[in-house]
Write a structure and sequence with these properties.
Elements lengths: L3 H4 L2 H12 L4 H15 L6 E5 L5 H8 L3 E6 L2 H14 L5 E5 L12 E6 L10 H10 E11 L4 H5 L8 E2 L1 H10 L3 E8 L4 H5 L3 H15 L2 H6 L2 E7 L1
Parallel strand pairs: 1-2, 1-4, 2-3, 4-5, 5-6
Antiparallel strand pairs: 5-8, 7-8
InterPro entries: Methyltransf_25, SAM-dependent_MTases_sf
EC number: 2.1.1.-
GO biological process, one term: methylation
């Protein structure tokens, strides 16, 4: 997996949320939370697994809404941050954070009601083993996002130290088919790349987000979207 050592560094874990989701990055965080909730809701009483949970942004959010959730990540420092967040939110008893390999999930078949991964498949190489494992341990929903090949992300990718795996639609369809999953829903967003939002103040980013959201509803916006959210069923 790309960036495995980088994500396990202590300083990365400590600064991860601030670097990505402060200022204009709040618009990214808001949209991602919305996408997760739309895919998994209602979550109250559900048994959920989050792959590559990082610092627990979504793990804690779902626990606050009544889910029993396991957050799995390769990074010990990230998991420490996640446990602290869960404790501060008062949901420590509803969350279990585990260090583990997403390519070999330590759970039996059909163990969870839903399995999801955000900000993971751009690092997954090869991705098929990860999606197959997610499908194996889910008895209903599998949800994930991808960065798109024919979008502004292609340009932004050149500036990243690790780069990202970018996906065309047919590649996602092949992945789903190979994992025995059926596509149930999809959404496409962010004509403007993530990096632009992170570099500007929240006030300016808000105006750009309004324009971006307006484009999202058009055929052009869907074709140029840099991020896609995929909801699949076992």
């Amino acid at each position: 997996m790309k960036g495995k050592e980088w994500y396990q560094a202590d300083d990365v874990a400590q600064e991860y949320d601030d670097k990505r989701f402060s200022d204009g990055g709040r618009h990214i965080d808001r949209r991602e939370r919305q996408a997760v909730l739309e895919a998994l809701s209602p979550v109250d009483g559900k048994n959920v697994l989050e792959i590559a949970c990082g610092t627990g942004r979504f793990t804690v959010m779902l626990a606050e809404r009544g889910a029993e959730i396991v957050g799995l990540d390769i990074s010990g420092p990230m998991l420490v941050q996640g446990r602290d967040k869960a404790s501060e939110a008062g949901v420590g008893d509803a969350v279990e954070f585990m260090r583990g390999d997403a390519g070999r999930l330590p759970f039996p078949d059909d163990h969870f009601d839903a399995v999801f991964a955000m900000r993971f498949f751009h690092l997954a190489d090869p991705p098929v083993k990860f999606l197959t494992e997610m499908a194996r341990v889910s008895k209903d929903v599998v949800f994930f996002d991808t960065f798109n090949r024919f979008s502004s992300r292609s340009v932004y990718n050149w500036l990243l130290p690790m780069g990202s795996r970018l996906y065309a639609r047919f590649e996602v369809e092949q992945l789903l088919d190979g994992a025995g999953l059926s596509l149930a829903d999809e959404a496409h967003d962010f004509v403007l790349p993530y990096g632009l939002y992170r570099e500007i103040p929240n006030e300016i980013a808000g105006h750009l987000r309004e324009m971006d959201t307006a484009l999202r509803g058009s055929l052009v916006g869907e074709k140029l979207a840099s991020v896609s959210y995929w909801t699949a069923q076992v």
